[in-house]
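Title: Request for sanity check on Disulfide oxidoreductase prediction

Description:
We are preparing a figure and want to confirm that the structure record we downloaded matches what your pipeline produces today. Could someone re-run it with the sequence below and paste the raw structure tokens into this thread? We only need the token string, no images.
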Amino acid sequence: MAKTKAKTKVKIGRKMNLAELVTLYPQLVNVLMEDYGLHCVSCFAAGFDTLEEGAKIHGYDDRDI
């Protein structure tokens, strides 16, 4: 009998840690880097920054986030 792995969906929010975000959704790495210029997702700082902090570092304001 084959086992299936249940997927739990996690809501993405501005306070989510970047490393956690790309671990849960690795398909977002290219989108965040290429479409939004958030190259911090592949940086050592990803373990320390939230999506909000990374976006603000790259020039996004609260309305954009």
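Thanks, this matches our download. Residues 18-48 form one domain.
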